[in-house]
User: Fold this.
Amino acid sequence: MPEHNDALRAARQRLGSPSSPGQPMTRQELAEAVNAEVYRLTEKITEIDANHIGKWERGDIRWPATHYRQALRNVLDVDSDLDLGFRRRSGGVKTEDVDRRSYLGTALGLGAGVALGRANRANAAGDAGDELVASIAAPTESYRRMEASVSSQHLAPAAEGHLRLVKQVVRDKLHDARGFAALSEVAGFSAWLAADRGDTAAARTRYQESIRFAEAARNPLLVSYMLGSLGHFAVEIGDPHQGAQLLDKAARQLSNRSPAAARAWLASLRAVAYGALRDRTAMTDALRTAERLADRQPGEAQWPWVFAFTSAKVARYQSSALAKLGDLSAARSVYASAIPSITTPKPQALAKIEYALLLTGTGHHDEAARLGGEALRVGKQYGSERIVSNVRTLRSKLPVRSREVDDLDDMLISLYDGEQ
Assistant:
């Protein structure tokens, strides 16, 4: 029986990730880097995960398939399978020369940014572009994590400046798949910030750019992510027919071998679109697909996502889909369990507004106004015009006067006082 190697765990704890200070690179991050490199080499979509990496480290699998070994050599920047500790099974042959598990454990400590840069490296050994890719990609991931707690108004200038910088770097230094993939992510994040600020024209432009750059990178997963993001944006601003078409196009970029989290996310978005189109059958099928696929790889985010896609997030989209469909009873039931699981302020505020809109349909105006006030405070604090606009919509559906509604009116009036 293969023996576990405690050195792997120690190496991962000792060596930190440049993109997540104090944290080692995880097995899942290495798996995603290998998947990306296999696609670059073969144009085949693979779905190895942390469990696969664990089997290689423990020696449960001593000789992975050729494309995996080649991808690992490129990602980890080594010359041979022997350097990884891989040997074909044969009588009496051991791996004294190189301890594969110790090597992989040490490599996991290099950090996600460097490994993902290497995952798209050129064939030439020692390509200096690898470090440049990691350098231009790292700020975007940091900004995306900051977005949950920092005003979009403050983040947007930094993101737009970084986008201009990366465009120049890609034009001059990285005019290849690696550079275009990084550029697509930067443009996509800028689109998200524009949407949050209520600038729909800028958001559409940036999303369209992100799709073009993803296509130039020849990465179907990234193309699907950006198409899906634009499609959901279209649904949210009141264009469900156009949004559904974009989401269908995004789905055609994926296959059964695509990451389960990607398919669950896209199915959830499609459910919301079908709800807006009042297509209960299609909505229900999409939700069932999302529920079946969610949490297949729990605890780890999959690139290009920076947060894991869980069943709790499916519930959030389910409640939104039911609300758009007009099924108030079912939507209220799901919201009651979904809202407590949303821990970041802006997503929770958006969920509260949707819930409040449902309450207005059942005559619970005071509770709806109270939730609207809570959401509006978040919208003001984080500079989210999306939240503020949704609260204005909520107020238009509150015809009665009460203390709670008056308080909400005072908060909305104060927006104009602050602007003056």
Q: What stands out?
A: Residues 1-19, 91-126 have pLDDT under 50 and may be disordered.
